[in-house]
């Protein structure tokens, strides 16, 4: 039995430019993605005998089971490699769900990383193909850090991004949730109707082509953006297909001060989560772990206590 764990970081899109629909139904993208220190923890157990793929997210039973992208990633890896070993996945969720922060894709990438290590897979092309078959954002999370992504997101080029301290506003109201397919469809509808690109910052500032159509259909998101601007954020932007709104600050102190200022608006009572985060220069790797029930784990804990 092999036990591995990996951090699954969130991401923000500092730039998201969307081209017209392609023949395969996807859109051509140019996006700058940056990982955050906000992360899920993914634990993977690879068993010695054939068995099923299981996936559990404690406290989030709605995310359990084969529909989770992490489980789909494990099934795709097994199928591609002709493996049959049982795989158990446990995800401690810290990244908001359906938030435009890539949590599900990052969990899937973490599982792929763990299984590649467990089974000694070094074929990068194979791993990249599996990742793209699971989701367009998954290849990014297999990279080393910030990157420009093109195509569906599979053509990656490392990017140099100055450290940023961020405040994220995530509305938990289910009526504000935005499925990525809807966001892209709204953009296509607005372009076909000749709608102006309202809400898109210009020049070298952050920009997201999906923001205007999403704000048009979810006006309260523009209110969140205004709150971040009032708190001192530079060019607040929606991340990915939303609905999370992200503001950048000059340092950790200003970001925390802004978060306190926003908290005084009693946003929690309005169903808005305030998250302080910073960007990462590098993704974290995979490490082994032992079950707390194992004798070796208990022995290690006992020996490390002060006497």
Low-confidence stretches: 198-204, 294-307
CATH topology of the largest domain: Ribosomal Protein S5, domain 2
Radius of gyration from the alpha-carbon trace, in angstroms: 20 Å
Helix-residue proportion: 25-40%
How many structurally independent domains? 2
Beta-strand content: 25-35%
Counting DSSP H or I runs of 4 or more residues, the number of helices is: 9
Overall, the morphology is globular
- Please provide the ordered H/E string of secondary-structure elements: EEEHEHHHEEEHEHHEEHEEH
What kind of oligomer do you see? Answer: single chain
User: Helix/strand/pairing class, anyone?
Assistant: alpha+beta
The biggest beta sheet reads:
8 strands, mixed
Terminal CA distance reads: 33 Å
Mean pLDDT, to the nearest integer, reads 89
The total beta strand count reads 12
CATH architecture of the largest domain: 2-Layer Sandwich
CATH class of the largest domain: Alpha Beta
SSE layout and pairings?
Elements: E1 2-21, E2 27-50, E3 53-56, H1 69-81, E4 85-92, H2 103-118, H3 124-134, H4 138-141, E5 147-151, E6 155-158, E7 165-171, H5 180-192, E8 207-208, H6 211-217, H7 220-230, E9 234-238, E10 245-249, H8 252-263, E11 272-278, E12 286-288, H9 295-304
Parallel strand pairs: 1-8, 3-4
Antiparallel strand pairs: 1-2, 1-12, 2-4, 2-5, 5-6, 7-10, 7-11, 9-10
Structure description:
- With 307 residues, the chain is of the alpha+beta class.
- 32% of the residues lie in helices and 31% in strands.
- β1 (2-21) and β2 (27-50) form a beta hairpin.
- Strands 1, 2, 3, 4, 5, 6, 8 and 12 form an 8-stranded mixed beta sheet that branches. Strands 9-10-7-11 form a 4-stranded antiparallel beta sheet, with helices on one face.
- The model is unreliable at 198-204 and 294-307 (pLDDT under 50).
- The two termini are 33 Å apart.
- It has 2 domains: 2-160, Ribosomal Protein S5, domain 2; 165-278, Alpha-Beta Plaits.
